[in-house]
Design a protein that fits this description.
heterodimer; A: 101 residues; 5 helices; 3 strands; B: 140 residues; alpha+beta; 3 helices; 8 strands
Chain lengths: 101, 140
């Protein structure tokens, strides 16, 4: 399930920070990201791989580096989940009202 | 009243609904904690052992069974359970009643719990009959 993957990927504060930097400052390489964060390039690369697995970033090769870009598409899955769950509760509460009033 | 929100800090998405019903809190509490009444408005066959640690199961035609456990209960006021579908998506459901003269406000909130696995005893998930499940829950 997409929502599950997304929130698992975002459950690590450092990983969330990496994604936040891509959202705020635009596409970047692991080297660029690590330069502005107190973690190694290897650690950033690991977080980027997890974000990539959840579909939250896109990869584009540029020479020897990979440029990562934030991809908001998976959040649509979460919004769809919220809409679908919300609709079921609306229907359920309508039935409850009919039953008790 | 509609209030959907995304909880920051990597938390889950939550959906909340609140309705004012022209019925006593006791009547609504019965519809929340008694399986046959709960199932009628949840639109499924529901079996619930409404006490902390008790089992809850909902079956619907054409949909995966939903299994879970009652985590918290304050009689007449609040019920909280966690469950997950066969797809493995765990959520927490909280139902709260707030009585007022002539009416009762019911608030329900369902939150995605992706960071947390809901461990159920294996005998709950082997497809046993609901009555057998409740037997297991009582014995536990």
């Amino acid at each position: 399930m997409q929502a599950h993957d997304i929130f698992s990927a975002l459950s690590d504060p450092t990983r969330l920070e990496v994604l936040g930097r891509l959202v705020e400052s635009g596409p970047a390489t692991a080297t660029e990201l690590s330069a502005s964060m107190p973690i190694t390039r290897q650690a950033v690369a690991k977080h980027l791989a997890a974000l990539d697995a959840a579909g939250l970033v896109d990869r584009a090769r540029s020479g020897r580096e990979v440029i990562y870009t934030f991809d908001p598409a998976p959040f649509e899955g979460v919004l769809a989940w919220m809409e679908s769950i919300g609709t079921s509760w609306d229907d359920r509460l309508d039935r409850l009202r009919n039953a008790v009033e | 009243m509609y209030d959907d929100e995304m909880i920051p800090d990597g938390g889950g998405a939550a959906v909340e609904r609140s309705v004012e019903l022209a019925a006593s809190a006791q009547t609504i509490w019965d519809h929340v904690t008694r399986g046959e009444l709960l199932g009628a408005w949840m639109d499924g066959d529901v079996v619930i052992d409404a006490r902390r640690g008790g089992a809850i199961r909902m079956t619907r035609p054409g949909a995966p069974d939903v299994w879970g456990v009652v985590e918290d209960i304050t009689p007449g006021h609040r019920l909280q359970w966690c469950w997950r579908t066969d797809d493995g998506l765990p959520t927490m459901v909280e139902i709260e009643l707030c009585p007022a003269p002539g009416t009762t406000t019911l608030t329900v909130r369902e939150t995605l719990l992706p960071w947390r696995s809901i461990e159920l005893p294996p005998q709950w998930t082997d497809g046993g009959a609901p009555s057998a499940m409740l037997g297991v829950a009582r014995a536990a």
